[in-house]
Each structure stands twice: as C-alpha cells, then as structure tokens.
C-alpha cells in the first residue's frame, strides 16, 4: 500500500517543517505555524532546527498567541539548549519582553542588563537601554 500524506508529513525533515512553519507564519496562520514549530522541537529537541523553532515559537506566542508564559519558557529553553547560539540576542530580548508582558519588571530589568552586557552592538540594544531607563524612573 502507498504511504498516506500524513505518514509523509511525519517523515518530513525538521528543516522542511521550519520552512513550512515560516510560510504559515507569513500567511498569519499563527496556530498552524506554532504546531509545526512544536513538532520540530519534539522530533529533535537538541538540534539546531529545534533551537530555531524555540525562538520562533517564543516570538509567535508573545506577539500573536497571547501566551507570554509559554513564550518565556521557549526563549529560556533556547538559551539553555544552545548557550550563546546565533539567535541569542533574539532569545534574550524575547525573554525580557515576556517578563514585561507578565508584569515582572525586576526580572525584565535583570535580563535587559545582561542582554546589553552580552550584545552591546545589537540593533536591539538601544531599545533595551531606553527600556531600562524607563524602569529605573521612580
């Protein structure tokens, strides 16, 4: 018997799933994209593809799915699985934004301070410095 489309999709490479998820994201199909990111993470949790999927999932949860706590977990997992990885600036800044959405200004300030120290030349550093100034006002 011939394999079904579902079986074929299950066998898709993580890179292909990431590409599909990114296309869904471009179309505004947030939940469908998130489902594919999670498949990549579950399939190969310590892979580079899973690292990319965690950061993408965190952004999606924070910006479109109203899940700051889930976003925080994804950004922190990305940093834990790939310390200093190529998406570290995005993961750390996302972590700070998730804390901001959760109303935890102390944690947000702590993460922003570390972010600026680690990535002083990042395009996100100027905004991070500005936010730290806001947080330090009485």
TrEMBL record:
Pfam families: TPR_6 (PF13174). It comes from the Bacteria. This is Tetratricopeptide repeat protein. It comes from Corallococcus terminator.
